[in-house]
Amino acid sequence: MNIKLTALSFLIVLLTTSYSSFSQNKTNESAEVKRIISKKRSFNSTYGFGYRIQLYNGNEQTARKFMARFKVEFPGIFSKLVYNAPEWKVQVGNYKTKLEADKDLIKFQKKFSGIIVIPMGK
């Protein structure tokens, strides 16, 4: 009796697993999914992808101070000083999604005010 119950349980698990994998493959082939993927690729080629957090936008001396302070407060997190005439920007992090950037934004806002999440572009 115990062997029959074990065999039946195994068979049910096997059938359930194979059905769910088959249905997922069928879904990925739909025209709607292909259209959404194409739209996402078009968006990325136009606007780029990824996000950074901008701590400061202004003169060079203050930007360097912000960057130094950030490196002390959060060692090990990527930081970059960007010059777009006539302003200097301090940008930190490399995030694939805005959600990831927003999580760190909350953490950084405890030490820095007025910071924003920006898309990286192409």
From TrEMBL:
It comes from the Bacteria. InterPro entries: SPOR-like_dom. One of its GO terms (molecular function) is peptidoglycan binding. Residues 1-23 form the signal peptide. Pfam families: SPOR. Keywords: Signal. Residues 50-117 form the SPOR domain. This is SPOR domain-containing protein.
